[in-house]
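User: Show me an example of a complex going from sequences to structure tokens.

Assistant: Sure. Here are the input components:
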Amino acid sequence: MAPDRIIFHIDVNSAFLSWEALEHLKKGSGVDLRTVPSIVAGDPSKRHGVVLARSIPAKKYGIVTGEPVVKAVKKCPEAIIVPPSHDVYARYSKAMTDLLYSFSPDLEKYSIDECFINATGLRLRYRNDFFSLAHLMKNRIRDELGFTVNVGISENKLLAKMASDFDKPDKVHTLFKEEMQEKMWPLPVSRLFMVGRASSAKFQVMGIKTIGDLARSDVLLLEQKFGKYGRMIWEYANGIDDSPVQTQESEAKDLSNETTVEFDITDRDTARLYLLSLSETVGMRLRKAGLYAGVIAVNIKNSSFESYSKRKKINNPTQDTMAIFETAAGLFDEAWRKDPIRLIGVATSDLVREPVEQLNMFDGMSSRWSERKSLNESIDKIREKYGSKYIVRGSLLKLNRDHERNK
DNA sequence: TCTGGGGTCCTAGGACCC
DNA sequence: TCTGGGGTCCTAGGACCC
């Protein structure tokens, strides 16, 4: 029986690396990064050193994404390391979605390098030959944009996504329900979408080693042990997923900025400078999106890699830098365990489009609100025009100076 | 193993109210 | 008061994704 929906999942092969390779070629580099051992990674001397993407030759040395650069270099000393450039990736990402929109508007941008297409409506035009259609999309991206993708075809998003993860690069795979037993069930349970390290370890203990083992487990037992998640993961293992392809981008629910610092922060003043800088970016992004934050949080990771946080609901949702900073600074004082800080972050959530008007006569801040709003607006405008380098609040200048001096 | 940054969603406990 | 149960809100933490 023919499925009632046809879903494609398009996944760029080693996205960041492929895009860097193109960019380097464009700038006259004689070497295609895709053909040699290479990685996109942060700078270990700044403690940002993890592998974000690796070439297929680098993969052959056992380099995996997410691992420390230092470890990757031990596996392959001649690997070329390039720093990430997110604005470049955004450009290639858009080029790909623009091209895919020409096939169908029924497209969900799932991440910077992945999207889903509901191809059901293309049934007549392509006479049910979805395999050829997928090849057409894949080849046009390769020939017109210069990078390769995998396309997964199935009757729902979950199976299409599992299918695009099969043999790479530049390939089309199908994974219909009748193919699950052969193509998906023999895989280790950790390969299933939404099964990460923690649950994988628990499944091993339970004797659940493959996706098939999970599919054949007692769903009630899983539900009892893992709650909602247990049922969801059992359904995934059985290829059950009726979630729609969401063409509308959903409103942001959280917005945060965090940073791993080059040297541990050990004093309150330095922490406050970082908090101000982080509040500034968060505020700017909120204002740009037209959103107001109802909850403000501070996240800390200490030198022993322990994380903790403190958050607070505020009465009047805000997008004002100084309001965010003052709340964050207060939370920091309550939360900080006086341990050396490796990472510090400011996060906002409970985002709303318009602030709920709750005028509080006793809130001294309300009277200065309009002043601050126009200050924020002028700063944003100047940053928009000249780039964020040219305008920073006084205390941020000091932070940058201290930073330079410590180098 | 010298281990990024930005998200989404869920759970669990305590406060508070009826 | 030696007592109860349910609903909602808030907060902390942790799982997962790319």
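The lines above are the inputs; the final block is the predicted structure for all three components together. The radius of gyration of chain A is 24 Å.
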